[in-house]
Amino acid sequence: MTPPWGMNQCSINNCQHETQAITYPVYKVVHISALKQNGLLQSLSATPSDFKESDISEEVLRVREEWDNIASIHPGGIVEKPLGPIPLISFNEALQYFQTADLSDCRKKIRPTIQRRGLAAMAHFLFGPPRLQQQLQSERDLALAIAQCGLDNNEKVHMRILQTVYKKLTGSRFDCARYGAHWEDLGFQGMDPSTDLRGAGLLGLMQTLYFVMDSRILPVAREIFKLSHHEVQNFPFCVMSINITRIVIQVLREERLSRIGSLCQKKPKAAAKTHGDIHERKLCSRRG
User: Fold this and answer.
1) pLDDT tier, 71 (very low <50, low <70, confident <90, very high otherwise)
2) Burial zone of 206 (CB within 10 Å; 0-12 exposed, 13-18 middle, 19+ buried)
3) 190 within 8 A of 246, measured Cβ to Cβ
4) DSSP 8-class letter at 180
5) What is the DSSP letter of 265?
6) Span 94-104, pLDDT tens digits
7) DSSP H stretches of helix in 76-117
């Protein structure tokens, strides 16, 4: 009989020979209990009744300790695991931190006022806003220095500010992850809020912190946040807030807050008040 597909008897014999030539390794069946002689497997397979800490080798204990102390690694850097719930922080406490922190590198980058020349300088001198009082210039420089600070994952105060803004706006009692889609729900453009702080730095978060920690305007902040999720009037709340901070920084450098600063005697709070006023006007314009 002729083999199918044009195969001859020789090729069939060759295939059978090759098949018989294939050898497979022989595995010895070992009961799992026999593997418990290994120190690592013994520590992993031990039940609560027969488990003893002394049975674990020093190497296993060392590896366990390293694993427990390992930090979470994200695209933005290393984030240390918090030991407990992150407490809220008030605006005054955060401000005191920046007043005592070393911001020398940030202060080198600031431009306190806009440099005018020629007729523009003359017109500003004759008809421009009043000059900022000498005792308030340090407050102005502090606000501009904070605007040059980036978000540091290893700085506890920075993380407390971020968590406070999240909890106050959402009403949550629990900490949220440093990275995640929940920040988009808050009005950031991505899963990492620090990427939206360019141009405003931590001053952007400080303005929002003042907005949510003042009991008098917190209802307004939450109402605006609720409006940001409206089907028609929706907008990114935190991004808009940071953009308003950029406007406040520009107005501050143009010396248009000098009169408000003289009345408030606190330049950062004057800027924060202006930030809140702009938010309220935005809310009224959208309602109208």
Assistant:
1) very low
2) buried
3) no
4) S
5) S
6) 999 999 999 99
7) 91-100, 104-107
- Residue entry with tokens 């453009």: 189
Burial class (CB in 10 A: 0-12, 13-18, 19+), 268: buried
Q: How many CA atoms lie within 13 A of 252 on its CB side?
A: 33
d(CA 168, CA 104): 31
Structure tokens at 99: 């007043």
How remote is the C-alpha of 152 from its chain's centroid? 9
> 46-72 burial, b for 16+ CB within 10 Å, e for fewer?
eeeeeeeeeebeeeeeeeeeeeeeeee
- Residue 257 CA to residue 25 CA, distance in Å, equals 83
Q: How far apart are CA 217 and CA 241, in angstroms?
A: 15
Q: Confidence band (pLDDT; 50, 70, 90) for 191?
A: very high
Closest among 187, 195, 176 to 236, alpha carbons compared: 187
Per residue, what are the HEC states of 122-167?
HHHHHHCCCCCCHHHHHHHHHHHHHCCCCCCCCCHHHHHHHHHHHH
The per-residue b/e assignment along 230-262, b for 16 or more CB within 10 angstroms, e otherwise, is: eeeeeebbbbbbbbbbeebbeebbebebbebbb
Cβ neighbours of residue 59 closer than 8 Å, sequence gap 6 or more: 39
User: Which two structure tokens, joined as six digits, stand for 164?
Assistant: 């406070």
- Give me the amino acid identity at 101: A
The DSSP output letter for 117 is -
CA distance 103 to 145: 7
In Å, how far are 12, 84, 176, 270 from 141, measured between CA atoms?
90, 35, 33, 13
Q: Is the pTM of this model over 0.85?
A: no
